[in-house]
C-alpha cells in the first residue's frame, strides 16, 4: 500500500432509524427535528475536515407494533434535499450525500433536486442510490418492487438521471447581453429515453451540475447490488463486522469495477463504524454500554430488520432465516457475526443496536486510530462512515481527539484538497456523454 494513502471519512447524520440516543440525559430529545442542530453538525464535520455528511432516508413511515414505533424519533424527519440545502448555506467544504430510493422517487424530479443542490453548494452534492429503503413504490403508483426487478429498475433509473444531468454541455450558457442570447441551443441535448420502466424526453431544466455528476453512492451488498455499485458508484457504503469480511468485500468490489472497465481507485469503499471516544478504554466502553442500555430488546431486534420479532430472543441466532426484504447484504453480515461469536438473538441485537447494525469501537484516540489504520492498510476499506451514538457530542469528541491522531500518523488530510466533493475524494469529473461522442466521431 502506498504510504501516502489517505483515510476518507463520511459522518453519518443520525436521522433516527431505531436510535434511542434521544433518551440519553446529555442529548436533547428533539434534536432530530431541529435545523440548527443539523447545521451545527455539518459545521463540526467541516472543522474535522470530514469528506461528507451521509444521510440515510426512506419515504415510508416506520413499520412495526406500537410498542416499538412509539419509541422512534424517526417518525418525524426533514425531507433530505431540503435539509441538505439548508446545511449547504452554512458550510463551505463538507460534502452533502443523501439517500433517495429508485422505489420512492421519479428520476426527472430526483435529477433536478440533486443537480440543484450541487449548484447551491458549489459542487458538494452526492446521491445515495438505493433500490428500496422500504416498500415505497406505492407512492408513485408502481407495482411492488420485487427483488428480481429492483436492480433492473435502479440501473435504468441511474441511466435516466445521469442522462438528464448531461442535458446541457458545460459551456452552454453564454449570457451574451449584446446579442440577447442566454444559451447556445447547439449545446442542449434531449434525452428522449424510452425504456422498460421510464419514459423521459428531457431536457432537464437546470444547468449541468458543477461536478459533472454529483457523487453517486450505493449501499447494496447482494450479488445484484455489488454489480450495480461496481458499475455506477463513486462511493460504496458497506457493513462489514469483521476485518476478514471487509477485505473480501473490498477485493470483490475492486475486481468487479475493473471488469466493468473502471479504474478500481475510482470506487471508494467506506465501511460503517460506530465510534465512542473516551480518555481511557474503560471510560469509552462504559459510555458505549450506557447508550446501548437505552435500547429495549424489542427495539434492538426490530433494528435488525430480519423478521425476528416472533422468535425467542434468548435462543441461538438462527442460521436459516428466509431472505430479508430489506437487505440481503445486512442479513448475511449479521448472521455471520452472530454465528461466529455464538450469540443469541438478544445478544446480537443489543451489540449492534448503537451503530444501526454496524460494528462499534470504543476507545482512546490512539486505539481508535490504530483500528482505522489497520483496516486501511489491510485493504479492508478506503475509509469510514462514522456513526456517533452520542450524536454531535460524539462527533465533536472525534474531531477534537481522534482527527489530530490520524493526522499525526499521516493518514488523514491537514486541509481540504479542493472545493468540490469529487476533488476531496480524489475522483475524476465525468465528461458529458454528448461531447464524448462528438469527439470520438471526429
From TrEMBL:
Gene3D superfamilies: Luciferase-like domain (3.20.20.30). The keyword Iron does not apply. Belongs to the NtaA/SnaA/DszA monooxygenase family. It comes from Rhizobium puerariae. This is LLM class flavin-dependent oxidoreductase. Its EC number is 1.-.-.-. PANTHER family: ALKANESULFONATE MONOOXYGENASE-RELATED (PTHR30011), C2H2 FINGER DOMAIN TRANSCRIPTION FACTOR (EUROFUNG)-RELATED (PTHR30011:SF16). One of its GO terms (molecular function) is oxidoreductase activity. The keyword Flavoprotein applies. Residues 20-312 form the Luciferase-like domain. InterPro entries: Diverse_substr_monoxygenases, Luciferase-like_dom, Luciferase-like_sf, NTA_MOA. SUPFAM superfamilies: Bacterial luciferase-like. It comes from the Bacteria. It is an enzyme of class 1 (oxidoreductase). The lineage of its organism: Bacteria, Pseudomonadati, Pseudomonadota, Alphaproteobacteria, Hyphomicrobiales. Keywords: Flavoprotein, FMN, Monooxygenase, Oxidoreductase.
